[in-house]
Design goal:
By secondary structure, the chain is of the alpha/beta class. The protein contains 7 helices and 6 strands; from the N terminus they run ββαααβαβαβααβ. Helix 4 crosses helix 5 and helix 6 packs across helix 7.
Length: 227
């Protein structure tokens, strides 16, 4: 059985103040490999604490790290080496067996970006799988899965449709957050849209470089008729 961990970046709303993109990333592993990945990511966090002073006991919330917010507020650029962090996670993604898929929805012309991203992540599932995400959009995502299942657009829905977990309790959801943030940065860079004045360009580019490679893919879904 496959485990699919989901996390997002951006919002799925429209109107003034809404984000241009909505990103949904899945991290997929075989259920039998769960203990391996939890331990492997734990070792990586311990190594990063020694190497770049990234607290191993804190949730790996990538946007907060980039902005030096919350528990990362005191970590200056000369202490916290973001490119080293991104390379370490990139090497982790290359180890396998793991699959990371990032779907970016350009919301111009897309009325239901959450639905579009969720179906893009789930439509081609052939085996038994369990989907897991952090709190927030889970009730809406469950309803979207039920509707897609009833209409025949999702012939193989996940078991229990979607399970909810606190992101701070799941190393794999936190990895999904990393790649979702990287995907949002990449889409914004390609569209020429500023993301945040406090995000260092070199650090952003380091994340962008990790969106594609061994065991990971990036897909930007644009409105029909746009390049």
């Amino acid at each position: 059985m496959e485990l699919m961990y989901l996390d997002e970046s951006g919002d799925d709303g429209h109107g003034e103040g809404a984000s241009r993109f909505f990103v949904l990333t899945s991290v997929r592993i075989q259920a039998d490999d769960w203990a391996h990945w939890e331990k492997r990511i734990g070792r990586l966090r311990a190594e990063l604490e020694v190497a770049i002073n990234l607290p191993s006991h804190r949730e790996l919330h990538t946007r907060a790290i980039l902005l030096r917010k919350g528990p990362f507020a005191g970590l200056q650029q000369d202490i916290l080496d973001i490119p080293q962090l991104t390379r370490a996670i990139g090497r982790l993604a290359e180890e396998g067996p793991i699959e990371i898929r990032t779907v970016v929805i350009d919301k111009r012309g897309e009325a239901q970006p959450l639905r579009a991203a969720l179906l893009a992540q789930m439509v081609n599932q052939s085996g038994v799988h369990l989907a897991i995400s952090d709190r927030g959009r889970v009730p809406r995502m469950r309803q979207l899965i039920r509707t897609a299942e009833a209409s025949g657009k999702l012939p193989n829905p996940p078991i229990e449709r979607l399970l909810e977990i606190e992101s701070k309790d799941s190393a794999l959801v936190q990895i999904a957050d990393f790649f979702a943030t990287a995907g949002y940065l990449r889409a914004s860079f390609e569209a020429g849209i500023p993301v945040h004045a406090r995000i260092d360009r070199d650090e952003a580019m380091a994340l962008i470089m990790e969106t594609e490679g061994a065991n990971r893919t990036y897909c930007l879904i644009r409105p029909e008729g746009t390049a």
